[in-house]
């Protein structure tokens, strides 16, 4: 069943194609969070992954089907391949997995470049056409809506236009209602691509989509050019994340379509959320936001002094290509202070907090978050720290913290034999006692974590299952450096902890990396303690 | 006098427009280094800055004129504005400064949007035309080649095409031989921009250039589209650095022109230097290279496992839009190991080392550099560390290091009153003695630096003038994390030192931030000591 705005498709593949970017590794929890953010923005389609091929993707669809993902705007899409050559579609387990995902929409990728058909698939053009037709029809017969990703389309069309077009025909005959022309190798430039798109639209009359890669640094431009040439379905990823040079950036594409081409491709009010959503998705991906990203970067509207500043004082519109607030951004050169009242309320509800009638407290929590964010704190990917903060502001924390720190000392020895030894001693108050413990580690933070654990374990039974799963450090260069000549750049540490059943992330920010780590570790244990005593 | 390849202009404005990027602050030394790199790549024009308006730019041109900058390919360009309204050109000191710079080429920026003429300049269209004509002619009469930057051209042309075109005419009548259409606000999209460029070329017959900003994420695409529509002069910056969302990336523009449009816009062999030069310029700017940058990013040709990997094994050409080695890149997912024999030799000569007939030693120095670079070391911006390494490999270090470290200890106390205290103790051997010194600091690194200084100052007189000028830390996320669950991410520290006369930068890399800082500090002092004893 088509969604409300079926005339133009904003199709996001952050969770599938975008997830192929080096360094990205989404947990299933991450994927659900990403999907919710995209849905909140109002995209029409969320390609959630490749069920059957990637275990975390299979699980993601299962949890979505089980009700863990409520989508208000988007339809979930399962991505997969046409049946294998020489195999009957009903016997192909990968195709079955697409059905099992229960996604209402399926996108199938098929070769549309003869050289790929012959060399990569090792089959012939005719079998390839049958593979396309069979698989599309099979899924249609089972009630799915089907799109076709025509892989390597532009290269294939240049090499053998007939082959490429017949692949599209085969899909449409099988029941696919959008054929997406993919610049898989990313080598296209806008003028030539637009010509090809216009030609295909004219020759076939099919509903055409576009999927661009950024290898020539033209992905966004190519996508827009394709729309101007007749495409009505655009495939993008958040912040252009993707393999190699990446994909077309969802936010730039949408920003351009709405503000330059006057196309209302998102629900009312969604455009103003662009900046916030871009940053939130970057945090989940654990990638530093690109401060110079079009539309949403924190520097996107920041003009340096000089030629422009005098004119801006006269008339800001003289130098801004759009009004920054339209995309939720602004002209000030500040770090992201993206916490808005609405998102605090949203978060609170996620944490099971009852916020009805508590406007003042929510307001003060918001102030606290903004204050911290201006110093480099970021809660987008540190839900557990945010929950602790909210509960504290709302006086919803039951009981005292599980332990109190009296002091710690971290010693780093570069010994005369050249060996580097890290040792930490903590003095804490726990379960009514004062405990001192010392431990060594691979480095100062590891030593501190080990000492803390040593001190607390005998007294806090739940600590036994808690483990440091991941540790991320980022130097915040956009923050003014404190200390002498920058030796204490503000550092943000994210700690992901696990107890075998769930994972939670906490954050710490300080000019000193060890202290920043301490803050994140402390919150990690406080959160576990809170959950251990508060049934959720 | 026009350069050898005057048919097509590759015009770089890294040092002027690109320098307006937030966070960039080039010293004069940096500017000279940037210019040499760009010249080595073979660009036709290097816009060096705005003499008269910015002191460091004035100094840069002065040093270039004094012989500190030898250009093999490029012509140096001074950027500036047309004379002020109501002032005679010969009386305008800013225009005189352009002449004084002695740059053979001058680019003048002029308003071509009527609204800007009236609201920002507060004058009328006629006076604006006289300002353009007078200034161009004045500079031509003084033997300069003149280009015109028509600011806000596309917006201006859409608002009042006649005004915009008359500005171009006025410049050409004055003697300008290229009129550059600037998308100053960055709001253009490729198809519309190409139409406008074609129209202007057709209506005027002038030689047209293009200057794009990246606010719609289309700067590169717009630049290429403009060339296809008749522009023969492209203005870019290294890595797209610039104000707001940045400028058109020189490397993507050149990569596209050469490999997609078959235009030989660089000297033979230059294309293969693209990746190395891109990274070197990033280091000088102290900006982390974009691993996903088109053509030159370390991930630009890195394919993730899955759909593509199997095909790559079959045929790499099936999935690469170009051969990576053509731009000096490769398919392996590795950090940049860009040190090539040629650059080592080049560097050696810069350091005053005689490398004739020392091929084996150069080879082993290269190996050492590559080995270190694979672990996260980068010497592009740490010339002093590189010089020490080369001299060591070539046995060109006179005498022993100025001091030897026996051990150090750094203690970080988070005290019971909440205060964070950092203290360091060093034990060193210097001037035949064993010295122990302890000092405190704002953080562990500052404390270590203070303690070292305290220990050495009484024994090394030259240390008195040495100061820590800048300290940069970067966590190298592209390196496999060592230690437990990432608590010891490889950290790179760059230390810039000064003695009041010169500045030098050293680097240290280690899983432990304090040890990484130690290595950089040690090199900083060793380099000063070497210079103090070796007259250069």
Automatic annotation (TrEMBL), chains A, B:
Question: Looking at its record, which EC class is this enzyme?
Answer: transferase
Q: Would I find Disulfide bond among this entry's keywords?
A: no
Specify the domain of life of the species encoding this protein.
Answer: Bacteria
Recorded GO MF terms: (R)-citramalate synthase activity; 2-isopropylmalate synthase activity
Q: In which pathway does it act?
A: Amino-acid biosynthesis; L-isoleucine biosynthesis; 2-oxobutanoate from pyruvate: step 1/3
What's the EC number here?
Answer: 2.3.3.21
What sequence ranges are listed for the domain Pyruvate carboxyltransferase? 8-276
UniProt lists the family membership as follows: Belongs to the alpha-IPM synthase/homocitrate synthase family.
The name this protein goes by in its record: Citramalate synthase
Which organism is the protein's source? Lentzea xinjiangensis
